[in-house]
């Protein structure tokens, strides 16, 4: 039985269909003091329970632990936890003295209630090593080609930094044509300011598809779009696996002049044009 977190209901429904496993109905409530309570009323005795919850905020982190425990209470023989978006995954080091390795702390907590974990396109695949149960990651970048227009003009699939070039190559391969390249990115960790250093790739008159794992504040993508506009790119499409789109990210991208923004449903947003659930279903 697929057991959805409150913020991940559309993804869970898509996974239920793709994996041909029944979708459980969960009740989510809060007590007057703010504490969460979830209920899984249907019997799951002797079955595999698949908790599906993007840990998009602190409440979702609490809920995933509760859903795992509820599944065990309901008699599940195995609990698998799918984190379509794993929160805190980018805090995979103590970047400054005194900081925690937050993704390790979160992974350890999630591991206590499950037999196995599946994540989707984490920023660093090595975060899987922080879980104390078997943990795997799947790459959903291939589905990002689906919403792109069929007839891109001499397309260039570009990542804003070298770390995301594999994603750009995956999207190019799934699209079936075009070139790939990457820019260089520096982030000032105090101010959060992004500096993009372009490559010498020719972009004038071409359609460019910027590919990244996540759009959070939108600074990386909007700075990259500005560089491409300065170099007379024809149209700029922006796509990512995890469309976090925090704060005014979508406005930043629109103001920068993007043609369209696309993402998957690991985070349920207006731009979630394509589902990553079939990729997870294959792994399940
Ligand atoms: C980091 O290298 C990631 O791949 C993303 O580029 C980054 O997290 C995006 O963040 P933002 O949208 O805040 O610039």
Protein model, in words:
There is one protein chain. The longest helix has 16 residues, at 58-73. This protein has a 6-stranded parallel beta sheet with strand order 9-8-12-13-14-15, sandwiched between helices. A 5-stranded parallel beta sheet has the order 1-4-5-6-7, sandwiched between helices. Strands 2-3 form a two-stranded antiparallel ribbon. It is globular, with a radius of gyration of 20 Å. It has helices at residues 9-19, 58-73, 102-111, 165-175, 219-230, 249-256, 277-283, and strands at 2-4, 27-30, 36-39, 48-52, 78-83, 116-120, 135-138, 156-159, 179-182, 184-187, 194-197, 207-214, 235-242, 260-264, 272-274. Helix 1 (9-19) packs across helix 7. 26% of the residues lie in helices and 25% in strands. The protein is α/β, with parallel strands linked by helices. The protein contains 7 helices and 15 strands. The structure holds ribose-5-phosphate (R5P).
